[in-house]
User: Fold this.
Amino acid sequence: MNRKQTVIALGLALVLAVGCTSPQIINSNPEQDKIQIVGEIERATPTPTAETASIETVVTPAPTEAPTPEPTAAPTEAPTPEPTEEPTPEPTAEPTPTPEPDRTKAEAFCDEALALLDAPYHRGGTEKETGFDPGGFVYYCLNRAGVKVRHKTSKGYSEMTDWQMVESMDDLEVGDLCFYRTPGNDAVNCVTIYLGDGLMIYPSSGEGKVITTKSNSNYWKEAFVFARRVF
Assistant:
């Protein structure tokens, strides 16, 4: 085989080796020691070797984005409560004051008694002309002062519980009725009208007439039981 034939044979062998699908000889110059091959050459895919086949392909998962948090609504301010009006407290009823004793009536009562000064003493008497005993004297003066009462004895008037009791002579006021139990008696047997300033008036059996006397003498202090306030 001459040189030319040898070159052609080598070219064909090379084409077959690289997988040329349609080899074409474009130019062959006998005077040149080379050939030109024009065409598509497919590269042979290398057969995977045992070494490469055994390599485990590790697939790294693509990084996932963290989920975007849902936007939270901005906290709304609690509505400012409307100012409530304080309830107007009900007016509390003022306590009813205890009425003061009507000193005008008490003084009028004492004036009626003083007008009878020196009137005669008369047991059981209730009239100015005939005279009085202590019970009749109080009965007459009270009715004249506008306090309508029945005729009673000194003991009977001491039992009038509608009238305030005064237990001490130190608390006496004008117009109070003072009750006594004189020596030799087991119960109240005398009533006087207190005029104020330690002075009282009553019909005296010993004097035989209406007199005034000091209430703070030892005699009356020892005989004092209690008093009652009519006015």
In short: The two ends are 176 Å apart (CA to CA). DSSP finds six helices and ten strands in the chain.
